[in-house]
Amino acid sequence: MSDDHLFLVRQIAKGDKQALAALYRAYERPCYKFIVSRLNDPHEAADILHEVFMDIWRVAASFEGRSQVRTWIFGIAYRKVIDVHRKRGRVTVTDEVPETDDVAEAADAGYAAKQEAEHLAYCMGTLSDDHRGAVSLAFYEDMTCAEIAEIAGVPEGTIKSRLHHAKKLLLHCLSGRIKGRAVA
Amino acid sequence: MTRARSEIVLDLPFLVNGTLGAAEKAEIEALMAEDALLAAEHEALAAIREGMQAEDIRSPGEFGLARLMRDVGREGAGPATLKDPVQAPARAWVWQVAAALAVIGFLAQGYLLRDSSAPQGGYQLAGAGQPGALVVTFAPGATEESIRALLVEQNLEIVAGPTALGLYRLDLVGGGDPAAASAALAAAADIVESVENAPN
C-alpha cells in the first residue's frame, strides 16, 4: 500500500491530477478526522484539508521518500493546524494534570465512555493541541511512537510524555463528566 | 525487566493501538499482571480508542475533491499569469470566484447534511431561474473564510452566480429580514463590494 502511495506521489510530481485524486481519496477521511479533532471547526478543517492537498500538489517533487507518505501528509496537516492556532492566538487549554484520588474510578469512568461519545468529544476538546494531536494520531490512526514523533517534529520521549499526561487528563475529565451526569 | 516501571508505563497507549514491539509488549503485559490500576487504565484507554475509531465524521468527500481539482487546474495555468503584470486584475477576479464557489460548495454540503431527509429540495445551483433576495459582488481582497463567516452570520446562502460580471444572488436561510441582511452586508465593505435588492 505504501509503495502504491509513493508511486502516486511520484506521479503527482509529474503533474498527474488523477494521481492527486487517488491520493486524496486514500487520505482525505483520516486526514480530515485528524484536523477536525484538533480544530473543532468542520468548515475550517475542510479549508485546511484543501490546503494540505494543494501543498502536496505543489511540493510533491521535493518528497524524497525518506519518510512514509502517510507521515509526510500528516506532518503537513500537523503544521497547518499549528499555523491556525498561531493566527488565532490560541493558548494552551490544559496542561496541568489534576490530582485524581481514585485512578481506578477514573479508569472505570473512561470505560463507560464507550457509550458516551459526547463526553469523549468534550474531554478531547479540553486538551491542549499538543496533547490532542498525539492522542488523535495514536488512537485514530494507530501510529507508532516514532511516526507521531516524526510528524510532530519532537523526540519520541516527548510524545510518550504528552500521551501520558493526555491520558490522565482524559480519564480525569471523563470521570468528572460521568459522575456529574450520574448525580444529575 | 530492563527498564524502570515509570518508563514502561509510558508505552501503554502503544500497547492499546497495537504498535508495540514484542519485547516492549511483554514488559508492559508483565507489569499489568501485577498492577490492577495499570490494567484498568489499559481497559479505559482501549475503550477510548474504540470510541474514537467509531466516530462518524462527515468529511468534505467529493465536494472537497472537486474543489481541489478546480484549484489545481487554475494553479496549473498560474505561472504564466504570475509573470505578466497585465494579468493581475484577472487573477484577482478568478481567485474571488474560486473563493465564492468554494463557499457554494460548503454551504450546499452543509444544507444537505442538515436535511438529509429531503435530498431533492433546497439548494439549487445557478441557472434554475433567478432566485435570491440580494445581488452582491465580493471585494477582491475578501477571503473565503471571511465571506463564509459573514454569510453564516447573516443566515444567507449563495443561490446563484457568479455571472460574467461577478454577481452573486443570495437568499436568506429560513426567512428573515432582507433589509437588515442587506445593511449588514453593506457595512462589511472589506468583504462585500456592492449589495442591492434583487429585481423580481
What does this structure look like?
The complex is a heterodimer of chains A (184) and B (200). Chain A is mainly alpha-helical and 184 residues long. Chain A is 76% helix and 0% strand. Chain A is built from 9 helices and no strands. Chain A has helices at residues 2-13, 17-39, 42-59, 69-88, 103-112, 117-126, 129-139, 145-152, 156-183. Chain A is elongated. With 200 residues, chain B is of the alpha+beta class. In chain B, 55% of the residues lie in helices and 10% in strands. Chain B contains 9 helices and 4 strands, in the order αααααααβαββαβ. Chain B has a 4-stranded antiparallel β-sheet with strand order 2-3-1-4, with helices on one face. In chain B, strand 2 and strand 3 (168-172) form a beta hairpin. The longest helix of chain B is centred in the middle third of the chain and has 27 residues, at 88-114. The relative contact order of chain B is 0.09. Chains A and B meet through helix 2, helix 3, helix 5, helix 6 and helix 7 of A and helix 2, helix 4, helix 5, helix 7 and helix 8 of B.
Summed up:
The complex is a heterodimer of chains A (184) and B (200). Chain A is mainly α. Chain A contains 9 helices and no strands.
**What form of chain A results from the Cα inertia axes?**
elongated
The number of helical elements of chain B comes to 9
Low-pLDDT segments of chain A = 90-95, 97-102
Terminus-to-terminus distance of chain B = 81 Å
Oligomer: heterodimer
Please give the radius of gyration of chain B in angstroms. 26 Å
Helix and strand content put the structural class of chain B at: alpha+beta
Specify the helix fraction band of chain A. Answer: over 70%
Shape of chain B: elongated
Based on secondary structure, the structural category of chain A is mainly alpha
Return the average pLDDT of chain A rounded to an integer.
83
- SSE string of chain A: HHHHHHHHH
User: Pair with the most extensive interface?
Assistant: A-B, 54 and 47 residues
Strand order, main sheet of chain B: write it out: 2-3-1-4
